Amino acid sequence: MASRTIRKGARALLMGSVLALGAVTAAPAHARDAALHDHALVLGEHLPHLMIHVMRLDSELGLSDAQRQGLRALALEVQPRMHASFEKAEHMERDIGQAVVEQGATTAVLAPKLDELQHLKRELTELQIDALLRMRGVLNEAQYRRALEDAGWHKPE
């Protein structure tokens, strides 16, 4: 269930980045890229990925040209960095899993790799937080709240 939620959030982030860049890529690449986001530290349901929602709601939100430019610049800067880090996390997790399952590696043996993976996921989370805050700075309060609503985000009870 959580994995499905992560994939939805990841697809939203990826699709938003693609739309913001004005690029179109093949469906298999989308599926693979969305799967990479399964390696995030914080679930999308707790730290929303708003770009797809903002771009889809463009006319409803009444985004100005300056706002669109700000969002495109953000996507151009952040998306490649996140993608590379998610891909690295995927490889690290696969290597760790293989070492445990195939070679019986212990946590003591894997400690350096686990530390590196933890550090990478922390960096990804910081990047995601920074991107969300920058997006919030581009949007006005009503636009931001509408995008959150569209993303299905709600204040935890």
Taken from the alpha-carbon principal axes, the silhouette is elongated
**Percent in strands:** under 5%
The helix tally amounts to 7
**Could you describe the largest sheet, including whether it forms a barrel?**
none
Distance between the termini: 20 Å
Question: Layout of SSEs?
Answer:
Blueprint: H1 2-21, H2 27-36, H3 51-56, H4 58-61, H5 65-103, H6 107-138, H7 141-150
Summary of the model, kept short:
The protein has 157 residues and is mainly alpha-helical.
Structure explained in plain terms:
It is a single chain. The protein is mainly alpha-helical and 157 residues long. Helices cover 77% and strands 0% of the residues. The protein has helices at residues 2-21, 27-36, 51-56, 58-61, 65-103, 107-138, 141-150. The two termini are 20 Å apart.
Q: What brief labels describe this structure?
A:
157 residues; mainly alpha; 77% helix; disordered N terminus
